[in-house]
Model the fold of this input.
Amino acid sequence: MEEKNNMELQGESKTAIGVLCGLFLGLIGLVIGLLLYKEGTYERKTFMKAWIISFVSCIAVGAVIGLIIFFVGMSAVTPYLMLGL
Done:
C-alpha cells in the first residue's frame, strides 16, 4: 500500500513539472513575440491572436490526453484493486 502511494506522488510531481514547464515556455514565447513586434502593428496583432489560439489549444489537448491516460490507467488497474492486490 505504501508503494502505491509513493507511485501516485511521483506521478503527481511529474504532472506538476510538466504543467509548469508548459506554462513557462508559453510565457517565454509571449515575451519574445512582444519584443519582436512593435506595438500597434499588424504583425503584433496577428502574433497575439495566434499565440492565444495556440496556447489555449495546447492546454485543451494536454487536458484531453491527460484524461485519456488517466482513464486507461484506471481501467488497467481496477481489476487488481478489486482483488486487493
Q: What stands out?
A: The chain has one domain: 2-83. Residues 42-83 form the longest helix (42 residues). The mean pLDDT is 77. Residues 2-83 form one domain.
